[in-house]
Automatic annotation (TrEMBL):
Protein name: Uncharacterized protein
UniProt lineage: Eukaryota, Viridiplantae, Streptophyta, Embryophyta, Tracheophyta
Amino acid sequence: PTQDRVFNFAAGPATLPENVLRKAESELYNWRGAGMSVMEMSHRGKEFMSIIQKAESDLRKLLDISDDYAVLFLQGGATTQFASIPLNICKPQDPVDYIVTGSWGDKAFKEATKYCKPKVIWSGKSDKYTGIPDFNALDQNSDSRYLHICANETIHGVEFKDYPTPAALLVADMSSNFCSKPVDVSKFGIIYAGAQKNVGPSGVTIVIVRKDLIGDAQEITPVMLDYKIHADNNSLYNTPPCYGIYMCGLVFEDLLAQGGLVEVEKKNIKKAQILYDAIDESNGFYRSPVEKSVRSLMNVPFTLEKAELEAEFVKEAAKEKMIQLKGHRSVGGMRASIYNAMPLAGVEKLVAFMKDFQARHG
Ligand code: PLP
């Protein structure tokens, strides 16, 4: 029963919209008269074809993706894309630039060193990843094949609000803010995202890639990483993550029904605002380390002035059915992930709890 559900602030896999889960439940055993679950269908049958095609066309509507781009539903997580990107669009000697605003950008950079010649042109590490560079001061290599950014750093809570102009192509990891707000896809060569934060269960990785970049992969590229193979086969070269794609499709329908990403962004701004306000107005009891102008709407890390209270905070919150508030093991503190599917009521409950906790322990 839905009244038993918790408010789940996990960074991913993360909470999904309740109405999407209910819809999936209602067609779990018999998908729309097919007499079987989506999990049991042939990925080449007409039923699943209709599911994947609808998912793609709804995603195209949501992000206003033009025909110049292919939309791929892949496996392997965003982590696999750290390798796929250089393998598909670089030669081994090609220089490429990385802006590193957190741990994920750093991982992407390190993986790329195996397949091309990446350079970190800006790193926020010395400031503990709390900011975004001044775009005018970026020293991009004019021969760089692409400029890679992580649009939202899930662990550090740093989000690009605007994008740098690349020397050639802009490539973005949008795993943790995918479909949380409108994005001008035409500014990017490649956008990629694991589904398990904003748009579905883990197991699906979405890649939006400009079609003219497809078809020139390095010779060593495994078939499973080659965009051309997947684009030519409409993401059905091998058995895709069928059920995950179906769930993503239900989420896309739900986002469209909410009025699309302009409306979704308004809700996300409101949720983030009340949480950051609670932190900023706590007289230092809670602190957000991130520079105000680039604070993430999705992942809100914060610390307690009295660090010794952090375990108690997590424990008491869990008792009140608010779970997964512990910060990433690499940075400590707290983190509240408030993706699209986190209701306003969840954030309001967290803020009320934070005030009460401060009153009792401040
Ligand atoms: N990039 C970002 C921004 C992430 O948050 C994550 C996972 O949390 C990843 C990449 C890695 O994604 P996956 O676990 O799907 O490989």
